[in-house]
Amino acid sequence: MADPELEAIRQRRMQELMAQQGMNQGAQQNTGQQKAQEDAQREAEERRQMMLTQILSAQARERLARIALVKPDKARGVEDVILRAAQMGQITEKVSEDRLIVLLEQINNQNSKQTKVTIHRRRSVLEDDD
């Protein structure tokens, strides 16, 4: 009398275990994909740093590293500009610190926002305009 019920319970339990095992395999695949993605990002960053080492002089690399400490996004943008210029053949020799400074000034001038301050003075009710 309890055999069909027991068999049904066993079947449900087997299905639950199979589903759980399938989820574990899916999680392992996701972990594998994440690891592969992280490896690809790390490799791309290593290639980027290698190219920058070949393009920049030691002093220029130091200056760019100091900029990266304060403004990482700005340093990344400067690196991108330098790498693009090198790939297009515009940079034929190592970039010195002085040339990097000129490049930074050019980028700052392009991205600078002009601020305008206007002061509106409140008029008092008791003040006479006449």
Automatic annotation (TrEMBL):
Name-wise, this protein is DNA-binding protein
Q: Which residues cross the membrane?
A: none
Which GO cellular component terms are attached? cytosol; nucleus
According to the UniProt record, where is the region Disordered? Answer: 18-46
Locate the compositionally biased regions of type Low complexity: 18-35
Write the record's keywords in alphabetical order, separated by commas: DNA-binding
Q: Where is the composition biased (Basic and acidic residues)?
A: 36-46
Under Gene Ontology molecular function, one entry of this record is: DNA binding
Asked if the keyword GTP-binding belongs to this entry, the reply reads no
Q: Which domain of life is it from?
A: Eukaryota
Q: Give the family, as the similarity comment puts it.
A: Belongs to the PDCD5 family.
| Pfam families according to UniProt | dsDNA_bind
